[in-house]
Each structure stands twice: as C-alpha cells, then as structure tokens.
Amino acid sequence: MKKLSLQVMISRFRQVLIRFPFSLSFIVGFSVLCFMSIQRVNVDIQERLWAFFGLGTLLNVAATLYLEDLKNSFQKISLNLLLIIIFAVYCFMLPEKLIEFQYYQLFSLGLVFTLAAFFISFLRKNSEIPFWNFSKQSIIQLIITVVFAAVLYGGLGLAILSLDKLFKIEISSKVYAHLAVFSFVLFAPTYFLSNIPDKIEKRKQEFSFEKIIKIFGLYILLPILAIYTLILYVYLIQIVLKWQLPNGWVSTLVSVLGLGGFLCMLILHPLYLSNKNKVVDVFVRLFPVLLFPLLVLMSVGIYRRIADYDLTINRLYVMILNLWFYGISIYLLVSKAKQIKWIVISFATITFLSSIGPWSVFSVTRNSLKTQLEKQLTVLHMLKDGKIVPKQTQQKDTATVQRATETVRYLVLSYGAESLQPYFSNSLKNKHVYDILEQLNLNTNDIDVNRYFHLYLENDSCIFNTDSYPVFVDLNVFNSGSNTDRAKNICENSQLKVEFYNGDLLVTNKLIKNGTYTIALRNKIKSLLKYNIEKINSPEKMTIKSENYKLILKTVSGKRNATKEGIELSNFDAYLFLK
Fold it and tell me: Which of 86, 165, 495, 544 is deepest in the core (most CB within 10 A)?
C-alpha cells in the first residue's frame, strides 16, 4: 500500500492536472455555478450551462481515456477541443428553460458518457481482462471517493456546528451548502480522477479478483436473482393457465431481473473464464435461456400498456430495452459469453442512438402522439383544415375526450405548449396546460398537473428607498411548506417576529402597539403565475406594499397543485421593510 502524505497528494493532483486538464476545468466551472447558486448572485444561471459543465465533465473524462493512447500530443489536444466545441454547440442550442423531454435526453447522454468511460479504452480485441480490471478498480475507487467525501463533509460540518453551539458564533446555512459543494463537487471528482488506473496499469492482462467480490456476486446477488426468477416464472405459469394478459408492472420486474443478471455475469466473469466454479458456469450458460420466456411476457406487457394508454417516452424506452435484451441474450448464447464487454458497449450504443436525431425516442413519441391527437380530434369534430376548432360547450366525459385530454396534457408537459402550435392560430407561448384545455373546452377534472415553479427578480440588486422604513430584514426561507396547522417561526429578536403560516407571513413589530400584520404572500404568487414567465423584470410586480410594511420578493419556488388555486411553497428570499 502506498504511503499517503502531503507530498504524495500534491504529486497526484499534479498528475491529474496533466492527465485531465479539461475535465478539471469542467469540474471547477460546475463548482463555480454551484457557489453562485448558493450565493444567489445577480446572474441568470441558465439550465444549459449546468448541462454543459456537468455532462461535459463526463464526456471529457471518457474522451481523455480514449485519446491518451495517442502518441501525438497535438492530436490529443485538438480532438479534445473539437469534441468540447461540438458539445458546446449542442448545449447552447438548447433553450434557456429546458423542456421535460430534454431532461430525459440529457440524462440518457450522461449515462452514455459514464458507461463510455468504462469501455472506451478497450475496443480492441483481447482486451476483456483489462476491461474487467479497469471497471472493477474504477468502481471501487468511486465507492471510496464517496465515503471520503461524506467523511470530509461530516467532519468539517460538525466542526463548524461546534463553533455555533459552543461559542455562539452565528453560522449561516450557506456555509454548509458551500462545504457540500467543496466536498462532493470539487474534492470528490478530483480525488476520483487521481485514482483512475493510468494508461499502463489499465492494460494489465491478469485478473485481480478479490474475495469480497466473489462473496457479493456468488453468495448474495446470485441467490437473489434465483428467487426473483422463480417468482416471475410462477407468475408466468399462472397467467398462462388463466389465459390472461400480464400486469403492466411485469415490464419493470423483468427489466430489473435482466439488468441484475447481466450485472452478475459481469461481476463473476473471471470465475467463468477460469472454469473453476460449476455454479457460475451453469448460471452464465443458462441465464439467457431462462430470460427468453420472461422477455416474451415483457413484450406482451409493453404492448398492453401502449394499446391501453398510447405511446410515451418511458414506454418506448422500455420497448427498446426489451429488444436489446433479446439481442444481447442471443449474442451471449452464440458467443458463449466470452466477450462480456459487449453488454456495456451495446447498451450504451443503443441508448445513444435512441436519444438523438429524428429517429430518437422523443421524436417518434411526439409524432405518434400528434397523429393520435389528430384522430381523436377528428372523431370529436374539432379539426378543420389542420386547425383545432374548439366546441362552444365543454365536451362530454367520453372515452375519446379523456384520451384527447391526456394526449394534450402529455404533449404540453413533455414537449412544451409550442408542440401544439401548428394546430392553433393564436400563440401558445408560455401557455399552461390548463389554459389550453380550457380553450379546447376539454375535461380538466382529475388531471394531475402538479408543476414546479420558480420565479425570480431579474435584478435583485436594485436601489430601494428605505427612508420611511427604519426596520429592514433579509428573509431566507427553505422548505416552508403551506399545508401546516402551526405557524413556522422564521426569525425573532427583541424588535420583531416573523412567522410563516398557511402560505402567508405573520409579522409582529414588538416596538409598537398593534404592530401585527398579515402579508398575503400566497395571493401575490398566484397573481405572478398568471404571467406564465419565470423571470420578472419589474420590482413593482414582486412587491407587496401597505402603509406599515413593504415586502420585495427576490426568488420564490414551489409547486402548483392539481387545481389552479393550489400553491405549495418550498422556499423564498425576500426583503422586508417595516415602519
């Protein structure tokens, strides 16, 4: 074991700086965004910036691991910069406010970049053993990194807390948030990169198979999979005997079994190649065969869900996963599971191809739903010359109306109101799903449209006239909640007391008689939500004012409940001025 010292740590950091310079730049950039977000500086941090620095880190780590085998340094740097430029163009072509399907897309790309880091250096033949060793060592180092970061955060956090409790030093909650960013966003990735096997170590051709890995794979994971498989087979026999369609949940259960089984094969791969364990040998050869009947069951379950509830992004992804299970199972049977790395490579490739381009899951789902909507509106006599013609009275609650309502809802929430713009003459920009359903006179009852909102003052560094308000309070409230029977104390001193109750602020000025005021915060937020915009450019719109007080909202976040009247606050920042 290498001796750990300050000199060793400095040497490792220097190696990381040389090996992963661009990756460290992305990590620092993402950390800066986190610090700025905590401080709530007067900068509009767009979501695409988070995507660029966050996913850019994963992409660049994978790219560096692939390019470091090149001998020409100029080629390494040039190709790395080219990849960064391409990814930057993609990110900055995204809208300032991301739509739901774009979150799916970014998550898929993040998963692909992460998986690529494991196999990108081992695409050549005869690299099974190095691939397994590198993956094992990287995952172990990742676990160690998380533990170290948690200990660092917990230890320093406790030390800071002791200053508050023992010496009465007032510590802002932002200090803990900054510490979390330092521990998990700055320190953890840097430490992890310093412990990734280097380009010489990752080419080792000898298995390093620790006993604990054998115990986990052979004596814990494998028995669980056996029990799980038995349960699903009993269910399969049951529905065959009763001749009924499978439950919609069966797709999820079979997916978990399939992914768990292939993970177990990856873990136990050295034992399989060594031919020293009959149980592992039987498992690797038999599992793809046992999976086939359950995959048929999964296919039927997917078909049933799509037939009953139309196509969605999730269901199409599950369908592609089902097809991938078929393909990789056949490959493992034919190849006798010798090239186990293709499980990861094929999964990442399929995920990448299904997440980009006009053939992507998102494009196919949107086009399919728009086709279904046109058919539904035609049945309801609401489509003329490609434009929607709303009925003068609300449609009756028929099955077609419900399907049309659900289709409109899904398209708006997943792809934005602009996805329906071709069917409307008026602009749908920033329209809420309720506004569109009401315009169509479709049923809006019992539709779950819980939507998170975040409103903020574009420039919260404005100069305010405080001559007539001698008392000033900077309010910063987290997890305020709205459905509570008891008032939550926000702040209190010898001069005043501020409480949050049922969506409103209760302010008591202790220095004057009858100095208790109720500030209707909830009603103000409802009026702001009518603008259907996130960035408020006028301080007056974010101000609640009366003879005795003035409240200026800087940021406010929460959730719209299933009705327009339902507002649940999660946090807000505000300036409070009192006479």
Answer: 544
Q: Which of 481, 537, 473, 462 is nearest to 509 (CA)?
A: 473
Return the number of other C-beta atoms located less than 10 Å from residue 319's C-beta: 20
- Fill in the amino acid letter for 480: S
Q: Which of 572, 527, 567, 537 is nearest to 551 (CA)?
A: 572
Instruction: Compute the distance between CA of residue 217 and CA of residue 277 in angstroms, rounded to an integer.
Output: 13
Spatial distance between the Cα atoms of 508 and 215, rounded to a whole number of angstroms: 63
Find out whether 65 and 79 touch, Cβ atoms under 8 Å.
no
At 559-575, the pLDDT tens digits run 766 444 567 777 788 88
Please state whether the predicted TM-score (pTM) of the whole model is above 0.70.
yes
Are 410 and 449 spatial neighbours (Cβ–Cβ below 8 Å)?
no
Closest CA to 260 of 232, 241, 237: 232
Tell me the two tokens of residue 333.
């049977």
**15-29, 409-423, 505-519 — which is least confidently predicted?**
505-519
* Angle, in degrees to the nearest 10, between helices 341-353 and 313-335: 150
Instruction: Compute the distance between CA of residue 114 and CA of residue 428 in angstroms, rounded to an integer.
Output: 37
- Look at residue 225 and give its three-state secondary structure: helix
User: Residue 506 belongs to what H/E stretch?
Assistant: strand 504-509
Q: CB 487: neighbour CB atoms within 10 A?
A: 15
**DSSP class per residue in 77-111:** HHHHHHHHHHHHHHHHTS-SS--HHHHHHHHHHHH
pLDDT of residue 396: 60
The confidence band for 465, taking pLDDT boundaries of 50, 70 and 90, is low
Torsion sign, CA atoms 438, 440, 441, 443: negative
Rg of the chain's alpha carbons, rounded to an integer?
29
The per-residue pLDDT for range 33-53, each reduced to its tens digit, is 999 988 875 567 888 999 999
Determine what percent of the chain is predicted with pLDDT higher than 90.
Answer: 46
Per-residue pLDDT at 448 exceeds 50:
no
Q: Three-class SS string for 382-425?
A: CEECCEECCCCCCCCCCHHHHHHHHHHHHHHHHHCHHHHHHHCC
- Looking at residue 182, the DSSP 8-state letter turns out to be I
